[in-house]
Amino acid sequence: METTWWQITIVTNSELEDIVFWLLQGWGCQGMATVTTADGVVISAYVPTETRSTAELAAFARSLSQDYGIREVQWKTIAEEDWSSSWKQHWQPDPIGRSLIVYPAWIEVPPDLDRVVIRLDPGSAFGSGAHPTTRLCLEALEEMVSPTINTIVDLGCGSGILGIGARRLGAAQIYSVDIDPLAIKATRYNWELNQLEPDRLALVEGSLTELLEVLPHPADGFVCNILAEPILGMIPQFHRLGGWGILSGILTSQIEVITNSLQAHGWTVSKVLQEEQWACLVINFAC
């Protein structure tokens, strides 16, 4: 029997976009897309009806309202065929920076394209390339990564887009880590989709602690696109990852508190990139 899906639509301000994505991902949604409007963002997400009841949806909506002030939450059922096309219709090839372009897996890449292509099918993992935090990280990677770079760590890899971008730009070895098994699955799938060498990717399901247990030596650099609060918790261990880092998922209003913590642990901020209310910090270890 054909699967039916809940289509959940959430209207909120752009500052809450990342948080809502993380909540939806943790709730089991498969496929998420964002449309930016003059008033904020409209987030669409999909979850099989057999896994979530109407009562659970109502409770989830109440939680969003009570905890985050989000009151525009709607849902309806759609068929399998409609789900397969609904969230994908928002995606088009997306040029990023000077040389990169993100291509949805279901759109054919023209043979004469003069950009470095990242093929992507994010599934239920966060990181499509459309969000400012991901774009800023890829732009920073363009500046930091070259074929002379040996190892890059992608901390909180999501769909795997940043590690794939680093490999495409010339990094020899990528360590990708995420606490979410769906992210590990998506990263492996997208790595194969880009026809990259399997021995160039080390996948670690877990946190920074699990990564450090298998990382043979500090990497050349690392990239971490999550949220400010977990970044603050990891800063004391960053020196074990590599000599430079790229941090995003940070609101511009949070730059000062992140910078103060970094400086207290021997890091300097060499560059700040900004798009809308989001910031990306390029950092170097000074000690």
Radius of gyration: 19 Å
Return residue spans where pLDDT drops below 50 for at least 5 consecutive residues.
none
Question: Percent of residues in beta strands?
Answer: 25-35%
Major sheet: size, sense and barrel closure? 7 strands, mixed
Number of helices: 9
Helix content: 25-40%
Number of strands: 14
Q: What is the spatial order of strands in the main beta sheet?
A: 10-9-8-11-12-14-13
Dominant shape = globular
> What would the average pLDDT be, to the nearest integer?
88
Structural class of the secondary elements? alpha/beta
Give the CA-CA distance, first to last residue: 61 Å
- Assembly state (oligomeric): single chain
What does this structure look like?
The chain is built from nine helices and 14 strands. It has 287 residues and is of the alpha/beta class. β8, α5 (161-168) and β9 (173-178) form a beta-alpha-beta unit. α4 (132-144) runs parallel beside α5 (161-168). The radius of gyration is 19 Å and the shape is globular.
Question: How are the elements arranged and paired?
Answer:
Layout: E1 4-12, H1 17-26, E2 32-37, E3 40-48, H2 54-68, E4 72-79, H3 80-86, E5 94-96, E6 100-104, E7 116-120, H4 132-144, E8 151-155, H5 161-168, E9 173-178, H6 181-193, E10 201-205, H7 208-214, E11 219-225, H8 228-234, E12 242-251, H9 255-264, E13 267-275, E14 278-285
Helix pairs in contact: 4-5
Which features would summarize this protein structure in a list?
287 residues; alpha/beta; 4-stranded antiparallel β-sheet; 9 helices; 33% strand
Briefly say what this structure is:
The protein has nine helices and 14 strands. It is an alpha/beta fold.
